[in-house]
């Protein structure tokens, strides 16, 4: 019996559900841990300086392996890499939940970050391959964008509920049944693609160089909040990461089978789209991190209330990314949509910076979150569409890894810079005699102002760098 076109479309969307469920699990884990950190600290007797490693161990592994995992997907099959990542992530999550001491938890978090990187690195490449039609691809990327935003915001709420109702162990245990379901569905619904094999791009030296560069760079970034952006520690490890990255690029220019063919970056769509996206996320991390701190430490919100307060962001992103982004991109072009959305995001960050010590949620916070949600719901799908359109089909897994690496590094770097700006400003205000709440609020205002500048820079670069039209035929 011949397979009908409707049946093919249904199978594609079923596969998208599987991919987005895996992506949701990874995104949830990145934010769900934040709310549980005080409980983890109390239970396992973490010193404040050591507690950051519960987050940093995950981020270093995640950021360091994305590019390598994306290329492996192209070479050995994206389905195989995706399912392998899910298996590692689930086992590491169980290990995290069973942790009884600091060392056990930190090592498990590193392994969990590796599993998260392997899983998420190939998802965009698989989506682009599944949906060759530009309109369907736009809707699929809209769903992907919504899942990312919803998972980031929902993690705050879910983390608060699980920690308060049960214990911090359950923020990790919840991944086990979800991961098993995703793996089972993936075995049935995802096409068993076969790559050309490792001999066509198994550059072991290049893999070692880029993984070391990204891990050391991630370490330098996440520890910058402790040592300072201009400290010898940050600059030294940053210089080492750049030197390794330079050696990697030289290797790729001369290797017979490079891990990352440099021809990929000749595409204006891929290079410009990723640069603008990275800057956007560097600025937008302020609304999640500094905004949550403002609600908790200045306005006195509980973790659960913070999660509820942020719900307008994923709701707005969902309505825009799933419903309106694809038609708007088709009507006006992704570049125009992205630039207009970036201006709206900058407006939302400006509004958050104006909320004071006595700020009111309905009048001061909610309008800002709506601007951020609407802007994110339009900008994220448009920029991903632009970036992924610049890759040939055989490179879509690698392009997915590049895109995820840019998102991760952009977010972490933005967080380090903005957190440092906020802390420095707060310390300066305290030194001048300001009370604690005023100093904290002043620091967050400075962080939001810097974030606004970053996003406006992204908007300007979007006008200059992004192509007016994208080559749809290559985005498949």
TrEMBL record:
Boundaries of every Major facilitator superfamily (MFS) profile domain copy: 15-470
GO CC annotation: plasma membrane
Keyword Cytoplasm: no
Localization, UniProt: Cell membrane
Gene Ontology MF, one: transmembrane transporter activity
Domain of life of the organism encoding this protein: Bacteria
Membrane topology: Multi-pass membrane protein
InterPro entries hit by this protein: EmrB-like, MFS, MFS_dom, MFS_trans_sf
Alphabetical list of PANTHER family matching this protein: BLR6921 PROTEIN, MAJOR FACILITATOR SUPERFAMILY MULTIDRUG TRANSPORTER MFSC
Protein name according to UniProt: MFS transporter
Organism per entry: Couchioplanes caeruleus subsp. caeruleus
Upper taxonomic lineage: Bacteria, Bacillati, Actinomycetota, Actinomycetes, Micromonosporales
């Amino acid at each position: 019996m011949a397979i009908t076109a409707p049946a093919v479309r249904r199978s594609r969307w079923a596969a998208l559900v599987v991919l987005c469920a895996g992506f949701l699990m990874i995104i949830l884990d990145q934010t769900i841990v934040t709310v549980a950190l005080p409980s983890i600290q109390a239970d396992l007797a973490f010193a404040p300086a050591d507690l950051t490693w519960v987050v940093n161990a995950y981020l270093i592994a995640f950021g360091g392996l994305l590019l390598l995992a994306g290329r492996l997907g192209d070479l050995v099959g994206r389905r195989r890499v995706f399912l392998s990542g899910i298996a590692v992530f689930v086992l590491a999550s169980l290990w995290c939940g069973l942790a009884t001491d600091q060392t056990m938890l930190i090592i498990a978090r590193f392994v969990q970050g590796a599993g998260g990187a392997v899983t998420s690195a190939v998802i965009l490449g698989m989506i682009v391959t599944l949906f060759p039609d530009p309109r369907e691809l736009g809707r699929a990327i809209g769903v992907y964008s919504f899942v990312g935003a919803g998972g980031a915001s929902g993690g705050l709420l879910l983390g608060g509920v699980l920690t308060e109702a049960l214990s911090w162990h359950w923020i990790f245990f919840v991944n086990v049944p979800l991961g098993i379901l995703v793996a089972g569905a993936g075995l049935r619904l995802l096409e068993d693609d076969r790559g050309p094999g490792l001999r066509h791009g198994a550059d072991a030296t290049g893999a070692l160089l880029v993984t070391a560069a990204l891990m050391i760079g991630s370490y330098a970034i996440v520890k910058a909040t402790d040592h300072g952006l201009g400290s010898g520690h940050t600059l030294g490890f940053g210089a080492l990461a750049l030197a390794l990255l330079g050696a990697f690029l030289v290797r790729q220019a001369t290797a017979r089978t490079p891990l990352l063919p440099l021809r990929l970056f000749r595409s204006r769509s891929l290079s410009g789209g990723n640069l603008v996206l990275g800057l956007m996320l560097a600025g937008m991390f302020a609304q999640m991190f500094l905004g949550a701190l403002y609600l908790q430490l200045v306005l006195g919100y509980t973790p659960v209330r913070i999660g509820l307060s942020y719900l307008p962001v994923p709701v707005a992103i969902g309505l825009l990314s799933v419903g309106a982004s694809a038609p708007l991109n088709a009507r006006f072009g992704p570049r125009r949509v992205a630039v207009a959305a970036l201006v709206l995001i900058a407006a939302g960050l400006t509004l958050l910076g104006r909320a004071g010590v006595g700020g009111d949620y309905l009048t001061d916070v909610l309008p800002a979150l709506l601007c951020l949600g609407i802007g994110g719901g339009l900008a994220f799908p448009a920029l991903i569409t632009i970036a992924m359109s610049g890759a040939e089909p055989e490179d879509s897994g690698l392009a997915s890894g590049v895109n995820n690496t840019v998102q991760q590094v952009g977010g972490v770097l933005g967080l380090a810079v903005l957190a440092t700006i906020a802390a420095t400003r707060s310390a300066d205000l305290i030194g001048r005699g300001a009370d604690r709440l005023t100093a904290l609020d002043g620091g967050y205002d400075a962080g939001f102002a810097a974030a606004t500048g970053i996003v406006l820079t992204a908007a300007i670069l979007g006008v200059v760098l992004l192509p007016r039209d994208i080559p749809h035929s290559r985005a498949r």
